[in-house]
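Comment thread on ticket #2218

A.B. wrote:
> Attaching the input chain for the structure job we discussed in standup.
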Amino acid sequence: MLAPMPIQEALAWASKAAGGAAVDSVEPLGVAGGLWLLRLGGAMQLCLRLGDPQDATMRSRFETEAAALVLMQDHQLAVPRLVAADLAGTVDGQLALLRTVRTGSSLIPHDPRPARLRALGAAAAAIHSITPPAQAGLAVRTGPIADTNFTPAMSSPEPGTAVSDARRRIAGLDRPSEAHVLVHGDLWQGNILWVEDRLSGILDWDRAGIGPAGIDLGYLRFDVVMTYGLAAADEVLAGWEEARGQQAQDVAYWDVVAALAVPPDLLEWLHFWHDQGRPDLTAQTLNARRDEFVGAALPDLG
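C.D. wrote:
> Ran it. Output below, let me know if you need it in another format.
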């Protein structure tokens, strides 16, 4: 269910932050609620996010996104610009974050396009070129999609599967010692915008942090395997390595970390891919591709 329309106090706050431009229209974005497209002053468009300050997870996500956008404002990345943030919940008793809008579509094509897959890897490499200072206000991450919880029924994989084998084996390994860089934390195709085949935006920085580049690279490789099959992961890796000018470290380890960060039965997340224009995908296909992805990593895991 969509959240109720922002009341006048929140719109007045956004108008003031935008230099006094009047709010002409308000349009909900997405299906979860709390995200709004504002049109102001006839031509300006901004995105307003509202949230409950009593929700500790939501409060942390607002703080993280604001910190990440501030950090990136001096870097040449295709990301929104933070206009204003109220992280104390004083705007109508709500958290509020106002940012610019990036143009483009996040729909995922049915056909794999090698140049586009390599551009995804290159975009991740650009993120990883940033080493945040200690005072950046970003948490240390050890894996993707921090603070995501699955339903109890989905908490454990079936014994004897590639996923259960990977979970057992990775539990006995030390985490790789790698340089910590900026990581997006939820880097999948649904958070990437395109204008035709030109990458035009990277959105949703509320799980960003500081950690090994493999957190993003493994999760992005996992995602493209879900939509295109195993060979797509190599194109993403090639794009990353070419852009960074170095070989990626511990690829198998981070592939497995990514595969273990999602529900054991991907039926639970099927709607995400459907919403991004891939209704052809089934839970059976996704689970089979995930198992193939994990199986390919296991021989190189420790």
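A.B. wrote:
> Thanks. Noting for the ticket: The chain has nine helices and nine strands.
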